[in-house]
Amino acid sequence: MVLVESSPPLARDYIKILQQCPKKTTYESTRVCETFDALPLIDLRGLTGDDEGERAKCASEIVRASSEWGFFQVVNHGVSPRLLSQMRREQIELFNAPFSRKSTCGLLNNSYRWGSPTAASPDNFSWSEAFHVPLTKVSDPACYGEFSSLREVLVEYAGAMQKVARMVAGVLTTNLGQSIQEFEEMIGCDESTCYLRLNRYPACPLMSGAEIVHGLVPHTDSDFLTILHQDQVGGLQLMKDNKWIAVNPNKHALIVNIGDLFQAWSNDVYKSVEHGVMANAKTERFSVAYFLCPSHDSLIGSCKQPSLYTDFTFAEYRNRVKHDSKLLGRKVGLSRFRR
């Protein structure tokens, strides 16, 4: 099967890795996935109204979901359907560009990536492509080339997601006894440290009943919070009670998940859980993720003592993740810093 011109040569690299690893060690827990409709769904209107009881109830739901699931969906989040639709249209147009152009012309701060260059086995290979853009670059006209209409949409989108992330982070930090202002001053989260990631998961002709291909390999996020907008194709899975659970798409909802840094910062009150995306044999999938990250020199300890983790900076954490990924073909994460 010949892939369309816009798609990267994922099949070529995947098959090469497969041939080098004849005894493929399948990520067994992904073979059985229970579709579960009870992923917490939280109405954020409760945080912005005048009713003190509703605000407390909504905050309690966010804290509980962050502690028990590490994942939840939010509706009435303040991001307009118009903006989400515009973002999706611009994203599709961008990814429909020829692969040769996406990979060579320096679009979006030269942030294009695809597949998994460090993968040593098929289980560590991601059947996807992405632009991983620092927020400091989304307003730079030089990043967009002929995709000039994307700039205005991406700037507005980044601002909207930043508001949602700050709202949720404010609830979580307040529960830990800190104000959002204290939190931001201590760890330096602002527009100069955060990222947007535009994802495309091309249809995977190698998918079959016997062959499992990851659109995005199972992992935890190396940030404080992630805010995700996905399309209706599905494929996102998360680990709950040692089972993989498929997340049913909700066109009205954004998905929020806790990252490694909030788990460490909260001393394991909040959970950063493993999640990934399964490839689809027939249909491409799109999503956009906003990552709430600190400055590289921010010290990530625990806000309560005794701490379960040694103190580390965000730069040290990222470097350790990169080292493990290069050496092992996968991320190890927080366990590297546990006392």
UniProtKB/TrEMBL annotation:
Superkingdom assignment: Eukaryota
Pfam families on file: 2OG-FeII_Oxy, DIOX_N
Domain Fe2OG dioxygenase: 192-294
UniProt cross-references to InterPro entries, sorted A to Z: DIOX_N (IPR026992), IPNS-like_FE2OG_OXY (IPR044861), IPNS-like_sf (IPR027443), Iron_ascorbate_oxido_reductase (IPR050231), Oxoglu/Fe-dep_dioxygenase_dom (IPR005123)
Keywords linked to the UniProt accession: Iron, Metal-binding, Oxidoreductase
A GO MF label: metal ion binding
Biological processes annotated in GO: coumarin biosynthetic process; response to molecule of fungal origin
Keyword Disulfide bond: no
Record-stated family: Belongs to the iron/ascorbate-dependent oxidoreductase family.
Name of the protein described by the UniProt record: Gibberellin 2-beta-dioxygenase 6
